[in-house]
C-alpha cells in the first residue's frame, strides 16, 4: 500500500488582457490531467477582457486591477503582487497580458514568471510581431515561451514553435496558425515547471539540470516524451 502523501497541485495565476485562449488551453490541460496545477486566480488589467467571463464559466476566481487607476506603474504592479500573494500563486503565467512590468513585479516572482511571445525571439520583441515578420520577408514565424525579466521579451527562452509563412499570409492568417502552436507549448513548458524540472538562474534557463539553448528547445510532437 502506498503511503505517499497525495500531491497538492501547484497554485498558479494567469494574467490576461484579452480573449484568453491561452488561458483556456491551461484550463483544458489541468482538466485533462496534463498539468498538475490549480488555477487559483485569473487576473486582468482590462475589465472588458473576454477571458474573464470564460474563467468565471469555468468556476475560476477572477480579479481586475485596472492599470488606469494607478498614476505609477510601480503602484499598479504592487497591487497585482499583493493580490497574487493573497491567491498563493507559485507560478505566474502571462497569457496575452499587455502591460510592461517593473522590477517591483519581476523581483517578487523572479523565476516563477513565464510569458508567451508571438515571435521567434530574439527576433521581434515588443508588439506587432507577425506584421514585422511579413514585412521582413521571413520564411517562417513562430512563438516563444520565456522566463520574464526586466528586459522586455529578453528573458531566457524555454520553448519555441516554428510555423512556415505561406504566400499571401496576412498578420491575422499567420497569427491564426501560430496560436495553435501556442496552445501546445505553453502548457508543456508550465508542466515542466510544475514538475520541478524547469528553473531559472543567473546562468539562464535549465531543464533537468541542463542549460537550455539560447533560443530554448524547439517543439516537436514527441518532445514531451523525449524530454521526460
Ligand atoms: N518587464 C517585462 N514585462 C513584460 C514582459 C517582459 O518580458 N518583461 N513581457 C510582456 C508581454 N509582451 C510581449 O510578449 C508585451 C506586452 C506589452 C507591451 C507593451 O508595449 N505594452 C504597452 C501598452 C500596450 C497596450 O496596452 O496595448 C505598455 O505597457 O505601455 C510589450 C510587450 C508583458 N510584460
Ligand atoms: N506581447 C504579448 C503578446 O502579444 N502575446 C500574444 O497575445 C495573444 C493572446 O491571445 P489569447 O488572449 O487568446 O491567449 C497570443 O498570441 C500571445 O502570443
UniProtKB/TrEMBL annotation:
Checking CDD domains in the record gives: FMT_core_GART
Q: Which Pfam families match?
A: Formyl_trans_N
Binding-site positions, (6R)-10-formyltetrahydrofolate: 73, 98-101, 115
According to its UniProt record, in which pathway does this protein act? Purine metabolism; IMP biosynthesis via de novo pathway; N(2)-formyl-N(1)-(5-phospho-D-ribosyl)glycinamide from N(1)-(5-phospho-D-ribosyl)glycinamide (10-formyl THF route): step 1/1
- State the reactions this protein catalyses: N(1)-(5-phospho-beta-D-ribosyl)glycinamide + (6R)-10-formyltetrahydrofolate = N(2)-formyl-N(1)-(5-phospho-beta-D-ribosyl)glycinamide + (6S)-5,6,7,8-tetrahydrofolate + H(+)
UniProt keyword annotations, A-Z: Purine biosynthesis, Transferase
**GO-annotated biological processes:** 'de novo' IMP biosynthetic process
Q: Give the annotated active site.
A: 117
For this chain, one GO molecular function annotation is: phosphoribosylglycinamide formyltransferase activity
Chain sites annotated for binding N(1)-(5-phospho-beta-D-ribosyl)glycinamide: 20-22
Q: What does this protein do?
A: Catalyzes the transfer of a formyl group from 10-formyltetrahydrofolate to 5-phospho-ribosyl-glycinamide (GAR), producing 5-phospho-ribosyl-N-formylglycinamide (FGAR) and tetrahydrofolate.
Family membership noted in the UniProt record: Belongs to the GART family.
Q: What is this protein called?
A: Phosphoribosylglycinamide formyltransferase
Organism of provenance: Parahaliea aestuarii
Lineage, highest ranks first: Bacteria, Pseudomonadati, Pseudomonadota, Gammaproteobacteria, Cellvibrionales
